[in-house]
User: What shape does this take?
Amino acid sequence: MPILRTKEIREMKPEDLNKKISELRLELMKEKGNMKMGRASKNTKKIRQLKKAIAQILTIKSVGGKK
Assistant: This one.
């Protein structure tokens, strides 16, 4: 299940998008830190999902968002 759906991202305000990006980046940084420290993650797909969600938000922001 994706973290955010494309429809949800497009409906968000620019301020909310910026806040969500920073939250996702912080969570990604924590997950990467845990992996480097040798702690096994319960959800190994989490890093990939976080990266994908960040990329989706940035892409929609650059394209213009609402259609």
